[in-house]
Protein 1
Amino acid sequence: MPLIRYQIKDCGAIKLGGSSKSENRDLMISIAGRDNDYLFTPEGGKYHLFTVAGDANFIKKKVIQFQWHQKSLDHIQIKYVPKPDVEWTEEDKREYTKLVKEKFQSNSIRLEFIAVNELTKHRSGKVQRVINDLINL
């Protein structure tokens, strides 16, 4: 039975034509996130969260979950749930900020890190990865 989801706005990669001669269906091979998980820069850039989240493997060792909240073009709050007994140091935050600025090609982005016990869930019951005050979701 095929999995059909209606208008959930997921972004993903599709492999055309399946994996064998007998398959003539397209196959979704990965899901990157929602099509509204975008962040903007003062320089006019528009970046999907996956642009930086996928590169930050060192964060996965220190953080259980995180959420980006873009307050303005140059200010993004990153709320995160830290792993128990693991510290996300100021040096780690500086390194991550440098990575974000490089990926977004913006030196004017300010990241504010806020440790929380739990992230607020959307009415769907899931955590929104990106909240963006610049666009009407």
Protein 2
Amino acid sequence: MSDKSDIKDFLLREKWAELETALQKKPALIRHIMGFLYHVEEEMRWRAVKAFGIAATVLHDEKIKDLLRRMLWSMNDESGTCCWFIPQAVGEIGYQRPELIVDFLPGLVYFKNDPDAQLRNGIFWALDRIAESGTEIPDPDDLMEPESVLENRVKEVRRYSASRN
């Protein structure tokens, strides 16, 4: 069987222990799980979400952080992708590894007002799931909007440039 077929079998038959062992031996299998977040059947997408939670318990911290970065980027319009189950996967990772999700919460909270209802529903599910771990979810009003961050960076660059002249 191929790696993708193995992952599909683990998900279909809910072989979570086998999936965990496979991920420990070959962390790159996570890319095949990502594909199942796009599956036509919702049940398979939810199984992929659970699989991300399992992956979060066995993969190295840096691998998980890289995965979270890519997942948050994929929710951005500029990424050119649209996977409505990415937020749920992020939420499951955050539930399993709350110490790693904290830095990514502002990015996740930012999407609470996205015009896409399906994405918003996923964001709310993710935030609720993360909160179940005891992680405090930031208030959106306490977060800087991306435009404000950009404006602050421009000001910093101007101050730096002025100080060098």
